Amino acid sequence: MSATAAIGPMIEPAVATARTVVFTKTLRDSRRSLLGWTVGITVAAAAYASFYPQMAANGAAQAENLPEGLRDALNMNDISSAAGYLGSTVFGLIVPLLAMFFGAAVGARVSAADEESGTLDLLLAHPLTRTSLIAERFAALIAAATGIGVVVLLTMLAIRSSADLTTVGVGQFAAQCVHLVLLTVCFGALATTIGAVTGHRATVFALTAVVGVSTWAAHSFADTIGLGWTAYLSPFHYYIDSEPLRNGISVSGAAALAAASLILVAAGTYRFNQRDLG
Question: What are the TM regions of this chain, as residue ranges (predicted)?
Fold first, then answer.
Protein backbone atom coordinates (compact mmCIF):
# COMPACT_ATOMS: atom_id res chain seq x y z
CA MET A 1 0.00 0.00 0.00
CA SER A 2 1.40 3.43 -0.97
CA ALA A 3 1.96 6.17 1.59
CA THR A 4 -0.67 8.35 -0.15
CA ALA A 5 -3.25 5.59 0.00
CA ALA A 6 -2.54 5.06 3.68
CA ILE A 7 -2.68 8.73 4.62
CA GLY A 8 -5.75 9.58 2.52
CA PRO A 9 -8.34 7.91 4.80
CA MET A 10 -6.76 9.74 7.76
CA ILE A 11 -6.86 13.17 6.13
CA GLU A 12 -10.47 13.10 4.95
CA PRO A 13 -12.04 12.83 8.45
CA ALA A 14 -9.69 15.57 9.67
CA VAL A 15 -10.80 17.89 6.87
CA ALA A 16 -14.48 17.12 7.52
CA THR A 17 -13.98 17.79 11.25
CA ALA A 18 -12.22 21.09 10.54
CA ARG A 19 -15.08 22.21 8.32
CA THR A 20 -17.66 21.34 10.97
CA VAL A 21 -15.62 23.13 13.65
CA VAL A 22 -15.42 26.31 11.53
CA PHE A 23 -19.21 26.42 11.11
CA THR A 24 -20.07 25.70 14.74
CA LYS A 25 -17.23 27.80 16.18
CA THR A 26 -18.28 30.78 14.07
CA LEU A 27 -21.79 30.63 15.52
CA ARG A 28 -20.53 29.96 19.04
CA ASP A 29 -17.97 32.78 19.04
CA SER A 30 -20.53 35.21 17.63
CA ARG A 31 -23.39 34.19 19.91
CA ARG A 32 -23.47 37.42 21.92
CA SER A 33 -23.43 39.73 18.92
CA LEU A 34 -25.94 37.53 17.12
CA LEU A 35 -28.22 37.67 20.14
CA GLY A 36 -27.85 41.44 20.25
CA TRP A 37 -28.68 41.83 16.57
CA THR A 38 -31.64 39.47 16.87
CA VAL A 39 -33.06 41.32 19.86
CA GLY A 40 -32.46 44.72 18.29
CA ILE A 41 -34.06 43.90 14.93
CA THR A 42 -36.97 42.09 16.55
CA VAL A 43 -37.69 44.81 19.09
CA ALA A 44 -37.59 47.47 16.37
CA ALA A 45 -39.97 45.44 14.22
CA ALA A 46 -42.39 44.78 17.09
CA ALA A 47 -42.31 48.37 18.33
CA TYR A 48 -43.14 49.94 14.99
CA ALA A 49 -45.67 47.23 14.13
CA SER A 50 -47.48 47.98 17.39
CA PHE A 51 -48.10 51.56 16.23
CA TYR A 52 -50.40 50.33 13.48
CA PRO A 53 -53.74 50.94 15.31
CA GLN A 54 -52.84 54.62 15.73
CA MET A 55 -51.63 54.85 12.13
CA ALA A 56 -54.80 53.18 10.88
CA ALA A 57 -56.81 55.93 12.53
CA ASN A 58 -54.65 58.93 11.72
CA GLY A 59 -51.96 57.77 9.32
CA ALA A 60 -53.79 58.43 6.08
CA ALA A 61 -54.36 62.08 6.98
CA GLN A 62 -50.73 62.49 8.02
CA ALA A 63 -49.50 60.86 4.83
CA GLU A 64 -51.58 63.27 2.77
CA ASN A 65 -49.50 66.12 4.20
CA LEU A 66 -46.37 64.69 2.60
CA PRO A 67 -45.34 65.72 -0.93
CA GLU A 68 -46.70 63.26 -3.48
CA GLY A 69 -43.23 62.29 -4.71
CA LEU A 70 -42.02 61.49 -1.19
CA ARG A 71 -45.23 59.62 -0.41
CA ASP A 72 -44.77 57.47 -3.51
CA ALA A 73 -41.07 56.92 -2.82
CA LEU A 74 -41.75 55.72 0.73
CA ASN A 75 -44.72 53.63 -0.38
CA MET A 76 -47.05 55.45 2.01
CA ASN A 77 -50.13 55.67 -0.20
CA ASP A 78 -51.88 52.81 1.62
CA ILE A 79 -50.62 53.33 5.14
CA SER A 80 -54.05 52.78 6.69
CA SER A 81 -54.03 49.06 5.79
CA ALA A 82 -51.94 46.60 7.81
CA ALA A 83 -50.04 45.32 4.77
CA GLY A 84 -49.47 48.85 3.51
CA TYR A 85 -48.25 50.14 6.86
CA LEU A 86 -45.92 47.20 7.49
CA GLY A 87 -44.66 47.25 3.93
CA SER A 88 -43.77 50.95 4.04
CA THR A 89 -42.30 51.26 7.54
CA VAL A 90 -41.46 48.03 9.36
CA PHE A 91 -40.44 45.82 6.44
CA GLY A 92 -39.93 48.60 3.93
CA LEU A 93 -37.46 50.75 5.82
CA ILE A 94 -36.47 49.95 9.40
CA VAL A 95 -35.97 46.18 9.39
CA PRO A 96 -34.26 45.84 5.98
CA LEU A 97 -31.77 48.63 6.76
CA LEU A 98 -30.92 46.96 10.08
CA ALA A 99 -30.60 43.65 8.23
CA MET A 100 -28.22 45.30 5.77
CA PHE A 101 -25.90 46.43 8.58
CA PHE A 102 -26.15 43.00 10.19
CA GLY A 103 -25.05 41.41 6.92
CA ALA A 104 -22.11 43.83 6.73
CA ALA A 105 -21.06 43.09 10.31
CA VAL A 106 -21.18 39.31 9.96
CA GLY A 107 -19.82 39.27 6.42
CA ALA A 108 -16.78 41.26 7.57
CA ARG A 109 -15.88 38.38 9.90
CA VAL A 110 -15.89 35.70 7.22
CA SER A 111 -12.27 36.36 6.26
CA ALA A 112 -11.39 40.05 6.66
CA ALA A 113 -11.38 40.05 10.48
CA ASP A 114 -8.84 37.21 10.71
CA GLU A 115 -6.72 38.61 7.90
CA GLU A 116 -6.60 42.04 9.49
CA SER A 117 -5.73 40.64 12.92
CA GLY A 118 -3.03 38.37 11.49
CA THR A 119 -4.63 35.09 12.60
CA LEU A 120 -5.71 33.90 9.15
CA ASP A 121 -2.46 32.04 8.46
CA LEU A 122 -2.81 30.15 11.73
CA LEU A 123 -6.35 29.16 10.85
CA LEU A 124 -5.40 28.02 7.34
CA ALA A 125 -2.55 25.94 8.77
CA HIS A 126 -5.25 23.42 9.73
CA PRO A 127 -6.53 20.94 7.13
CA LEU A 128 -8.84 23.57 5.71
CA THR A 129 -8.83 25.17 2.28
CA ARG A 130 -9.58 28.82 1.63
CA THR A 131 -12.72 27.82 -0.24
CA SER A 132 -13.91 25.72 2.70
CA LEU A 133 -13.28 28.59 5.10
CA ILE A 134 -15.43 30.97 3.07
CA ALA A 135 -18.13 28.34 2.50
CA GLU A 136 -18.42 27.29 6.14
CA ARG A 137 -18.44 30.80 7.52
CA PHE A 138 -20.92 31.96 4.91
CA ALA A 139 -23.10 28.98 5.85
CA ALA A 140 -22.97 30.24 9.44
CA LEU A 141 -24.07 33.65 8.19
CA ILE A 142 -27.04 32.04 6.42
CA ALA A 143 -27.95 30.15 9.59
CA ALA A 144 -27.78 33.35 11.65
CA ALA A 145 -29.90 35.28 9.14
CA THR A 146 -32.44 32.45 9.12
CA GLY A 147 -32.58 32.53 12.90
CA ILE A 148 -33.33 36.25 12.87
CA GLY A 149 -36.03 35.71 10.26
CA VAL A 150 -37.68 33.01 12.37
CA VAL A 151 -37.61 35.14 15.53
CA VAL A 152 -39.06 38.15 13.67
CA LEU A 153 -41.81 35.92 12.24
CA LEU A 154 -42.72 34.46 15.63
CA THR A 155 -42.78 37.94 17.15
CA MET A 156 -45.04 39.30 14.42
CA LEU A 157 -47.41 36.38 14.92
CA ALA A 158 -47.34 36.92 18.69
CA ILE A 159 -48.46 40.57 18.39
CA ARG A 160 -50.66 40.02 15.33
CA SER A 161 -53.97 40.16 17.20
CA SER A 162 -53.11 42.84 19.75
CA ALA A 163 -51.73 45.13 17.02
CA ASP A 164 -54.75 44.61 14.72
CA LEU A 165 -52.62 42.97 12.03
CA THR A 166 -54.95 40.03 11.43
CA THR A 167 -55.67 41.10 7.85
CA VAL A 168 -52.14 39.90 7.05
CA GLY A 169 -52.14 36.12 7.04
CA VAL A 170 -49.59 33.82 8.62
CA GLY A 171 -48.41 32.78 5.16
CA GLN A 172 -47.88 36.39 4.13
CA PHE A 173 -45.84 37.11 7.25
CA ALA A 174 -43.78 33.99 6.58
CA ALA A 175 -43.22 35.06 2.97
CA GLN A 176 -42.04 38.50 4.05
CA CYS A 177 -39.61 36.97 6.53
CA VAL A 178 -38.25 34.62 3.85
CA HIS A 179 -37.60 37.67 1.69
CA LEU A 180 -35.96 39.35 4.70
CA VAL A 181 -33.60 36.40 5.19
CA LEU A 182 -32.65 36.46 1.51
CA LEU A 183 -32.00 40.21 1.59
CA THR A 184 -29.83 39.80 4.69
CA VAL A 185 -27.88 36.98 3.04
CA CYS A 186 -27.43 39.08 -0.11
CA PHE A 187 -25.80 41.93 1.81
CA GLY A 188 -23.83 39.40 3.82
CA ALA A 189 -22.57 37.97 0.53
CA LEU A 190 -21.57 41.44 -0.63
CA ALA A 191 -19.67 42.04 2.62
CA THR A 192 -18.06 38.60 2.39
CA THR A 193 -16.85 39.34 -1.13
CA ILE A 194 -15.48 42.77 -0.27
CA GLY A 195 -13.67 41.28 2.71
CA ALA A 196 -12.25 38.45 0.62
CA VAL A 197 -10.96 40.93 -1.96
CA THR A 198 -9.61 43.65 0.36
CA GLY A 199 -8.96 42.02 3.74
CA HIS A 200 -10.00 45.18 5.61
CA ARG A 201 -13.07 45.37 7.84
CA ALA A 202 -13.37 49.15 7.60
CA THR A 203 -13.53 48.86 3.82
CA VAL A 204 -16.18 46.16 4.14
CA PHE A 205 -18.40 48.34 6.33
CA ALA A 206 -17.90 51.46 4.24
CA LEU A 207 -18.53 49.89 0.84
CA THR A 208 -21.45 47.73 2.02
CA ALA A 209 -23.10 50.78 3.61
CA VAL A 210 -22.58 52.88 0.48
CA VAL A 211 -23.98 50.17 -1.78
CA GLY A 212 -26.85 49.48 0.60
CA VAL A 213 -27.97 53.07 1.01
CA SER A 214 -27.48 53.77 -2.70
CA THR A 215 -29.52 50.78 -3.79
CA TRP A 216 -32.25 51.60 -1.26
CA ALA A 217 -32.37 55.14 -2.66
CA ALA A 218 -32.43 53.79 -6.22
CA HIS A 219 -35.34 51.54 -5.32
CA SER A 220 -37.25 54.29 -3.51
CA PHE A 221 -36.61 57.38 -5.63
CA ALA A 222 -35.78 56.05 -9.12
CA ASP A 223 -39.26 56.73 -10.52
CA THR A 224 -39.38 60.15 -8.91
CA ILE A 225 -36.23 61.32 -10.68
CA GLY A 226 -37.04 59.61 -13.96
CA LEU A 227 -34.57 56.72 -13.62
CA GLY A 228 -37.04 53.93 -13.02
CA TRP A 229 -34.82 51.31 -14.67
CA THR A 230 -32.21 51.65 -11.90
CA ALA A 231 -34.65 50.10 -9.44
CA TYR A 232 -34.02 46.74 -11.09
CA LEU A 233 -30.38 46.98 -10.03
CA SER A 234 -31.40 47.17 -6.38
CA PRO A 235 -31.82 44.11 -4.12
CA PHE A 236 -34.58 46.03 -2.34
CA HIS A 237 -36.65 45.82 -5.53
CA TYR A 238 -36.61 42.03 -5.43
CA TYR A 239 -37.12 42.04 -1.69
CA ILE A 240 -40.27 44.18 -1.37
CA ASP A 241 -41.74 45.27 -4.72
CA SER A 242 -43.77 42.07 -5.14
CA GLU A 243 -45.49 42.90 -1.81
CA PRO A 244 -45.03 39.57 0.02
CA LEU A 245 -47.35 40.80 2.78
CA ARG A 246 -50.17 40.72 0.22
CA ASN A 247 -49.08 38.20 -2.40
CA GLY A 248 -46.80 35.73 -0.63
CA ILE A 249 -43.36 34.68 -1.81
CA SER A 250 -42.18 36.00 -5.15
CA VAL A 251 -40.33 33.14 -6.81
CA SER A 252 -38.55 35.46 -9.22
CA GLY A 253 -37.60 37.93 -6.49
CA ALA A 254 -36.34 35.20 -4.18
CA ALA A 255 -34.41 33.58 -7.02
CA ALA A 256 -32.79 36.91 -7.96
CA LEU A 257 -31.59 37.51 -4.39
CA ALA A 258 -30.31 33.94 -4.03
CA ALA A 259 -28.54 34.05 -7.41
CA ALA A 260 -26.90 37.39 -6.58
CA SER A 261 -25.65 35.97 -3.27
CA LEU A 262 -24.17 32.89 -4.92
CA ILE A 263 -22.47 34.93 -7.66
CA LEU A 264 -20.99 37.36 -5.15
CA VAL A 265 -19.62 34.65 -2.89
CA ALA A 266 -18.25 32.67 -5.84
CA ALA A 267 -16.47 35.76 -7.16
CA GLY A 268 -15.09 36.61 -3.73
CA THR A 269 -13.92 33.05 -3.14
CA TYR A 270 -12.15 32.98 -6.50
CA ARG A 271 -10.30 36.21 -5.73
CA PHE A 272 -9.52 35.04 -2.18
CA ASN A 273 -7.86 31.92 -3.59
CA GLN A 274 -5.78 34.01 -5.99
CA ARG A 275 -4.53 36.57 -3.49
CA ASP A 276 -1.20 36.53 -1.66
CA LEU A 277 -2.29 36.71 1.95
CA GLY A 278 1.22 37.20 3.25
Answer: 34-52, 82-102, 138-161, 173-197, 204-229, 249-270
pTM over 0.85, yes/no: yes
Structure confidence by residue, pLDDT tens digits, 39-62: 999 999 999 999 998 877 665 555
Would you say how long the chain is, in residues?
278
> Are 144 and 32 a contacting pair, CB within 8 Å?
no
Return d(Cα 152, Cα 41) in angstroms, integer. 8
Please check whether residue 10 lies inside any domain of the structure: no
- Single-letter residue type at 186: C
Q: Which residues span the domain enclosing 90?
A: 18-274
For residue 39, being part of any structural domain is answered with yes
Bin 226: left if φ > 0, else alpha if -120 < ψ < 50, else beta.
left
How distant, in Å, are the alpha carbons of 11, 45, 142, 191 from that of 121? 20, 40, 25, 21
**Pairwise CA distance, residues 169 & 175, whole Å:** 10
